[in-house]
Write a structure and sequence with these properties.
Oligomer: single chain
Number of helices: 3
Shape: elongated
Structural class: mainly alpha
Strand content: under 5%
Radius of gyration: 15 Å
Distance between the termini: 38 Å
Helix content: over 70%
């Protein structure tokens, strides 16, 4: 497992890029947020908070390797679902 610092950076960069992609989509498709784009951005902010809380609470976990693997799996699953939602915007 890479360092916790690198995991936090990756989460920050990837989720930030997803928010940027949604905002670019909004600008190129009418210039205003839609209910769907607001929902996607809200879910990105919520998962960001959840993932960082899990990472920061890792001191209380016995098996840290399994804990961080679970955090990474949650992160990757969310990113894949969000990309599908963004691709489905019309």
């Amino acid at each position: 497992m890479a360092s916790v610092k690198n995991l936090k950076k990756e989460i920050n960069y990837v989720l930030g890029d997803l928010v940027d992609i949604v905002y670019v989509w909004e600008i190129t498709n009418g210039g205003k947020p839609t209910e769907n784009t607001d929902e996607i951005v809200d879910s990105i902010y919520n998962i960001y908070d959840d993932l960082l809380t899990k990472i920061n609470n890792s001191r209380k976990v016995e098996d840290k390797k399994a804990h961080f693997k679970g955090v990474r799996n949650d992160f990757e699953g969310f990113v894949n679902q969000t990309v599908e939602k963004i691709n489905g915007l019309n």
